[in-house]
Amino acid sequence: MEINLPDEFITQLSLSKRIVFFTGAGISAESGIPTFRGEEGIWKKFRPEELANFNAFMRNPTLVWEWYQYRRKIVRETTPNPGHYAIVEFENYFDVTVVTQNVDNLHKRAGSKLVYELHGNIEKNYCIRCKKRYDFIEFPENQGAPICECGGNIRPDIVWFGEYLPNDQFSSSENAAEVSDIFFVVGTSSVVYPAASITNIARSAGSYVVEINITETEISDRVNLFLKGKSGEILPKIIELIKSEKAKT
Ligand code: OAD
């Protein structure tokens, strides 16, 4: 695939120190994890209000738990793709912060050092009553939703519709966006708030906003540069470019 990287962007890269990657389900699509929206998106088959909210969980903990067990299985069977690894390589040249809406843990598994998870992490769980954490524990399949020793239901540590984002992760992400020189928006439809507001913060603060997506989105006409294509192809190309520019100096 031919990717045209304009001179303005190349100059911007050479002047930049702090880079934020704001990522969504699209960056993990090439690892085989389905996205939420679009033709192949999982919200075409399942409605979020049936599975991804607290009331649904209280009504039918087993249904919701099994849905997350199913997604955990997909996530565990996959590995990070060249898009995730390219972001790790950026750390050789810049101060990098990853702000992700993904719960799949793939940025950390790829090796990114600073990752803020706005929507939680599918590997983690906690008791809704006593808040005891159950991280990275194997729960047997087909045995319904697990119960804590205090008698409360154990739920996945995922931000469901109608719930607040984790305050520390969100405010640290806002700070990173505000001081960023380049802000990449990668593989997200940018329709889920408040997460998507991070891009507005970066733009208002004067960061150079680059969107990478296979299709145009709601924000494409408001970014400095729109790069159309797969993140697993475009991000490694940008790394190649950075390497060849460095070799010249
Ligand atoms: P979406 O499914 O809404 O959007 C995925 C985006 O990735 C779309 O714009 C696709 O065009 C794009 N895309 C697909 N494959 C790509 C590829 N290989 N390279 C680049 N782009 C690609 O996912 P999110 O924006 O992440 O919330 O959705 C936001 C939130 O909505 C999720 O975090 C989730 C969901 O409900 C929770 O689970 C709390």
Note down, in words, how this protein is organized.
With 249 residues, the chain is of the alpha/beta class. It folds into two domains: 156 residues, 3-Layer(aba) Sandwich (Rossmann fold), CATH 3.40.50.1220; 80 residues, 2-Layer Sandwich (SIR2/SIRT2 'Small Domain'). It is 39% helix and 17% strand. It is built from eleven helices and eight strands. The strands form two sheets. It has a six-stranded parallel beta sheet, sandwiched between helices. Strands 4-5 form a two-stranded antiparallel sheet. Helix 7 packs parallel to helix 11 and helix 9 packs parallel to helix 10. The protein is elongated. The two termini are 27 Å apart. The structure holds 2'-O-acetyl adenosine-5-diphosphoribose (OAD). 2'-O-acetyl adenosine-5-diphosphoribose binds next to helix 2, strand 7 and helix 11.
Which class of secondary structure composition applies to the elements? Answer: alpha/beta
CATH class of the largest domain: Alpha Beta
| Low-confidence residue ranges | none
Taken in chain order, the helices and strands follow as: HEHHHHHHEHEEEHEHEEH
